[in-house]
Amino acid sequence: MADVAPLVREVKDAAAARGKDPATLHIVCRGTYRVHDTPQGKDRRPLWGTLDEIREDIERYREAGLTELFLEGNFTPGGPSLEPALEVMTRLAPGR
C-alpha cells in the first residue's frame, strides 16, 4: 500500500525550513476509490476494497497527517453515478 507519511513529512519539513509552523498546515489529498464486495487484501491499491478496508486506509492517511481527503468516484464501474456515490460517502462518513 502506498504510504503518504513520507510525503507529509517532506511537506512539513519544507515548511519548517522556511520558518513556517508545520502544525498549522492544512494537508489535502485526492484519492480515487472503488468499493468491492469482498476483501482485496493487504497488497491492494489504497482506497480500493471493502468499505472496512477503505475506512482503514482513511484512518492511516489521517494518522499520517492528512487533514482532508477528497474521495474521487470517477473510476466506479459503469462511470460515476450520484446516488451510489452518496451512499458510499454516507457509509464512510466519520462516526459510522
Could you please describe the fold and organization of this structure?
The mean pLDDT is 90. The radius of gyration is 15 Å and the shape is elongated. Helix content is 40%, strand content 15%. It has helices at 5-17, 51-64, 82-92, and strands at 28-32, 34-35, 48-49, 68-72. It is of the alpha/beta class. The strands form two sheets. It has a two-stranded parallel sheet. A two-stranded parallel sheet has the order 2-3. It contains three helices and four strands.
Structural class label: alpha/beta
- The total strand number stands at 4
User: What is Rg?
Assistant: 15 Å
Secondary-structure element string: HEEEHEH
What is the strand arrangement across the widest sheet? Answer: 1-4
Report the β-strand fraction as a percent range.
Answer: 5-15%
Q: Termini, distance in Å?
A: 24 Å
* Total number of helices: 3
Low-confidence stretches: none
Overall average pLDDT: 90
Largest sheet data = 2 strands, parallel
Question: Outline, from the CA principal axes?
Answer: elongated
Q: What oligomeric state do the depicted chains represent?
A: single chain
Q: What percent of the residues sit in helical stretches (DSSP H or I)?
A: 25-40%
